[in-house]
Amino acid sequence: MDRNRNARRGPGRRRIEPTLAPDRADVAATGDDWRPLRQRQSSPAWRWWGALACIALAIVALMVFRQPLADRLWPETRAQQLRTDAEQALSEGRLTATDGSGARELYEAALALEPDRIEARAGLSRVARQALAQARMAMDTGRYDDAYRMLTLARELGVPRADADALAAQLRARETARADVDQWLVSAASALKAGDLSGNDHAALPLYRRVLAVQPNRTEALEGREDAISAMLQRAWDRMRADELAAAGALIAQARGFDAGHAELPDATAELARLLERRRERARAALGRGRLEQARTLWRSVLAVERYDMEAHQGLLAVARAQAAQATREARDFRFDAAEAALAEARDTAADAPDAAPAIAEAERSLQQARQSRQRLQAVDGSMTPAEREQRVSRLLRSALAAEERGDLLLPPGESAFDALRAARALAPDDARIARATARLLPASQQCYRDALRGNRLQRAGRCLQAGEVLGADPDTLRDQRRRLAQRWIAVGDERLGAGELGAARAALEAARTLDPSVAGLNAFARRVEAATAAN
């Protein structure tokens, strides 16, 4: 409505009807946004900026991905560009490059995109011919390394074999002409006469090898090399006669490196193998007799010739474990100096037998426990007067005699004759009464071992064996007893393994290994246990 159309009511009073503003009336009539026109005109400008940003991003994306999209949508365009770049590289002499910009790499990339087009294949053929030409030019200018490199490229790209072989022959001839081969031969002959066979670039064999590299059929070089190798093998024979197998093996290996087909090599190699086997036999025997240091020396001499000889590695492992077991036995008898010495030997051997580490660690723990036990005994002993110590020793001797009469030589622990004598020895190591009681107890310990082994009571047999060691049994007898008990443990372990008792089999293996690391059948049994463990 218009405000001029307002009606009047009564004198002096005018009724004002409600009206709509013209702009809102227009909006109401049209049904558009009811906000004032000025408010709509002042809407934020970010809408326009957002649209412009989207357009800009689209342009950037098109610029960045234009080439990959073109390659995917029109691969022939990309292939054509690669061929053009390859032609340019070929015209500039850039036949190959590690960064892919060489003619070869560009043609190969084009061929990968269009395998059926012949242009790229023809281009690679041109690269091959150009490589052959560059090889020839490099040869003419004395750049032999470049010539060989280009010749290799030409061969790889399928240049005719006859052309490549002809150029290779020319290259070899040029090198030969340039090389002072005659002077090399003179120097090699002089070195051979002086006995300088190898070890430096001016020795006979390296010089002969240099001659034969450029003139493979040069008679003087072939004959000189044969004579030099014969002289080297003669030195190897001298070393073998002197029982210096490591030096002999090194000489034979050098000779084989210069000419593996030399006529005298098989005899020298066979003799070295025979002497090595004899040394292995001596090492086995030394280990079996308990001569651990000798066994270690022999096994190491085998390794000096045959670095990867498995038997030598296993032999050294057995030596290290035996030395660790010896340290444990010495520690149990409180002979700590001897235990430390045995442990030091075991650590030395373990440098070539790292698998002995667990056995050495166990021996170290046993030594520590023995020291603690000795300290406790010394604490008790230190509080005793001489009279009290004498009474204590006498009481232990009477206990040992009573246990012996009862037949309790080793059991029960702490009440056996053996334990009583060991405690008495700790208090009075030089007491003659203890020595006599020990001598009297020794035959009983031997009988104990035989009875236990006969009854297949292997743990008791082991305790009887330990008693014999402490009581001073004959070393040869003890070695035989350890070997027999170890064999029995292997047999029991095999039975347990066959019954599927893997834990018992492993325990039997460790018992046998502790008793005699070199006993026959131990390694085979260990492999069976390892295989069964892996299967589970």
UniProtKB/TrEMBL annotation:
- Membrane-spanning ranges: 45-65
Instruction: Spell out the residue ranges making up region: Disordered.
Output: 1-32
Q: Which residues form a coiled coil?
A: none
Q: Give yes or no: UniProt keyword Kinase.
A: no
Its keywords, alphabetically, are: Membrane, Transmembrane, Transmembrane helix
Kindly give the InterPro entries that the UniProt entry links to this protein: TPR-like_helical_dom_sf
UniProt keyword Transmembrane helix present: yes
Highest taxon of the lineage: Bacteria
- Composition bias (Basic residues) maps to 1-13
Q: Mind telling me what this protein is named?
A: Tetratricopeptide repeat protein
Source organism of the structure: Marilutibacter maris
